[in-house]
Design goal:
The protein is an all-alpha fold. It is built from 2 helices and no strands. α1 packs antiparallel against α2. The radius of gyration is 17 Å and the shape is elongated.
């Protein structure tokens, strides 16, 4: 059985290197949880949140 949804835009298989939401969550969620829990432990959670916001903002501007 194929794991593709019906009506998939890909004919045979997904393109190589395609980053899908499940794959992104498997990579990003543990890293994010580790960063925020470490920031909480060392009492620098506000700085970690600020750095994350700035990083995401710069990434959004660059990719635009």
């Amino acid at each position: 059985m194929s794991d593709f949804m019906p009506g998939s835009p890909y004919f045979d298989e997904r393109p190589k290197g395609l980053l899908t939401w499940p794959k992104l969550l498997k990579i990003g969620l543990p890293i994010t949880l580790l960063a925020f829990s470490t920031g909480y432990y060392f009492d620098v959670l506000l700085e970690v949140m600020l750095a994350t916001t700035l990083l995401l903002g710069v990434t959004a501007v660059i990719r635009r």
